[in-house]
Amino acid sequence: MEERFIQVQRTARYHVLGTLEAAPEIWIAIHGYGQLARYFLNNFKGLEEGRCIVAPEGLSRFYLDAEHARVGATWMTREDRLHEIDDHVAYLDALCDELLKHAMPGARICALGFSQGVATLARWATRSDRPLHRIVLWAGSLPPELGSDALARWRSTTIDAVLGDADEFADPEQLDEIAVRFERAGISMRKHLFQGGHQLDAITLARLLRGE
User: Fold this and answer.
1) What CA–CA distance (Å, rounded) separates 137 from 66?
2) Number of domains making up the chain
């Protein structure tokens, strides 16, 4: 048996909150495993003043329950992972290019990744030529293959890492591990620990989007 590959064109879905043409700041909000973009974007309602928030959806969808009533999306699995990484990096690059065609001149691009979206964001941000003004890494870990040289591309980016103190998938030491990796790359970051689980905390989210 011989494994072969072919590139195909497909349609990707994203949802927008706010007025792109009037926003000095565009946030790319990257959801976690098993989520859909439109529901993930609900967490940002009321925060669109002065910014436009865009939630791209992972390219692979699947049923979350035996009844096939709930659908989620994922960015990648371990199967053929390198091509899936290439695909979602190209997808996010193409999305930024499309947004900037309609955005006001000088609009800044920022990005937030949640859970699995942290690894997706990190791989994209270290491989893309699109500069990111701010990055928020929420309840996720950096991919192990990203060394100091790759992370060094973020030296001009403001970085925040966030975790709930009752997160069932991680503990506060994860924030320290991320900080150590950035420190080795000569980058400073801010750590934020809130009371809660594996979720976006409304108060912390609003504060971070305001740059506080």
Assistant:
1) 32
2) 1
